Amino acid sequence: MTTGPSRKPLPLVMEQPRGRAKPPRHLADLTRDERAAAAEALGEPAYRVKQVATHYFGRLVRDPALMTDLPAATRDKIVADLLPTLLDPVRTLEADRGTTRKTLWRLFDGALVESVLMRYPDRATICVSSQAGCGMACPFCATGQGGLQRNMSTAEIVEQVVDAAGVMARGEVPGGPGRLSNVVFMGMGEPMANYKAVIGAVRQMVAPAPDGLGMSARNITVSTVGLVPRINQLATEGIPVTLALSLHAPDDELRNELVPINTRWSVHQAVEAAWEYARTTKRRVSIEYAMMRDINDQAWRADLLADVLLSYGDWGWVHVNLIPLNPTPGSPWTASRREDEQEFVRRLVAKGVPTTVRDTRGSDIDGACGQLAALDA
After folding, report:
1. Could you say which of 44, 114, 257, 288 is catalytic?
2. Binding residues for [4Fe-4S] cluster, per the UniProt record (predicted)?
């Protein structure tokens, strides 16, 4: 069966291009010890950095004029050194009556990334980017078609979350002031290919104020297309985030086409790593599966998917999240027929695999899963 244009195997080296300048150092990049060293370099007592951190993480404030507990003579200098501007908003688009907001950001070197804030009745979720572009080359994903520009820094990732938390706190989303409750690493990039910065950002999110945002690790989801060594490493971090494995096919023949990294780590290797993560952390894993008409939505593939997952046990370690394919420019594929989607769900549930269909948001502003392309036009 032909699934699309033939593709060369993905290179085994997935690092960002070398020779790029690094973003300015930011408070969110620093450990507690490094913050003390930063204060010393500024000629300030260590508690000054703690004061700035309290404003940034606890009060979601960046404006030095609002940090009146800092000495007026050095306030601007301290804040400029610890909180340099990392993300400049280019534009914000809204959908779903303003409860979905997609922001295009320009980074210090001109690279563009996007984040999406979604408010629901019971929660508010920010979908963050971890790389400018993506090197995984999945042909149905707009981000993957643009290639990888560079990894984002820990602080560039955290800044997306702090901005969203501030937007919620100030009541800028319909529904009044609220709290940002969830973070999903499902924006631009492959989080596990930028592992150090992503884990650094997660640690800043879960650390209690003033060291971080004080969020629950259980409300943070880290997705991956299946970088097995990094999944294994994540299981040892002691941070019980939710792991989401973007599988999209239960057989190697098709997944080699849809998710080229599968030529390095197969379906069974990726699923086994996910199972080990669930076994180690006692956290249920989410299997992400984009439904593509006549490509991966056949009933027999639902049966095969269930068999693959249940071969590791039926103790509730996994949940399947079906995603109606979102349209991207030039893509030859479309979303599954409603009846095929329903049959896929029926077969998974009949075999005892918990399954839901994602409530897709923001597709009309190219803000849904697989649509982020960061186009400045």
Report:
1. 114
2. 134, 138, 141
